[in-house]
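Quick one from the shared queue. A colleague (R.T.) flagged Acyl-CoA dehydrogenase as missing a structural entry in our internal table.

Convert sequence to structure tokens.
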Amino acid sequence: MDYLLNEEQLMVRDLARKIAQEKIKPVRARYDETEEFPWEIVKVLAKSDIYALFIPEEYGGLGYGTLELSIVVEELSRVCGGIALCLAASALGTFPLLLFGSENQKKKYLPSLARGEKITGFALTESAAGSDAAAIQTTAVKDKDSYILNGTKQWITNGGEAQIYTVIALTDKKKGARGASAFIVEKDTPGFTFGKKENKLGIRGSTTRELVFNDCRIPRENILGKEGMGFIVAMKTFDVSRPGVAAQALGIAQGALDAAVDYARSRYQFEKPISSFQAIGHMLADMAIQIEAARSLIYATCRMIDSGKKNCGKEAAACKVFASDTAMKVTVDALQVFGGYGYMKDYPIEKMMRDAKITQIYEGTNQIQRNIIAQNLIREAARKKV
């Protein structure tokens, strides 16, 4: 479909596609095997100004929006959903600064992020606080002009690699979720260390680690917004970041379809290419329909966000649900088209299927997303009756 992208958006898409094909595709299998963090790709993206895309011009960025970011994440994920996270996860950690950072905070941190000299991480999840994010136990106790952090964050993307983190911690336990606050924490801060590096099913070209805070003292000026705004910071961040997860899922699905179509045309059985069999053709057609529908929803939602429309949480959740469910179905079906070959690591399909699964889980499971959508529908209906 023609999404009426303008000339600059097409240039951004083509640049990302070129990087994916020329720089990421040759190394994706190696990173999947070794679980190294793809610093060489970070440097390529930085040199190409990709990290500057969504950062305002006054802080050294290019001033584009979530649509351009999602287009790039889609193109990178089309080749490797894991390596694409070196950009997408950094965007997640940067959005709180963009949305809630003070002018001094933005001037201090955003220029180096725009240049790709530093990347970020976002730390909300804990061992007992996944879908129930309000159950976090990490604390931040005020001490004169500082806060002292104690606790552990789990499954943090870019953990140990990023130099800057947005961390959600309780400043007032008695208030529960309303007692949470958001902080900027730099990597080399005393008392801030990293736990084990996780051995994951998929996105193995992305690092996932525990963050450990043991009497970690951070300056008072590192709070984002005000005390008690931590969950507002987190939820508003997800409203603009979830289309990025959807774009990652979309890219994985599109890459799987590309591979399945090529394979179906070249694989012969019964003296015919398997693409000539209706059973295979219908599978490919269904994949294409689902992918195009996901892309339409993602691009439309990004345009809503970039237009300045507030309260896009329902649409962002819908993007994430639909695209990630699509990615999982498409990769499973694409592997079926490959048959036994698809199960082998000599072909990229099994990796795409492994990478797709996480998109249904992180930044809120798809069950949580459906709760968000339903709650919004009910609130909207109630408002109409008033």
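The first strand starts at residue 120 and ends at 123.
The mean pLDDT is 96.
Added to the table.
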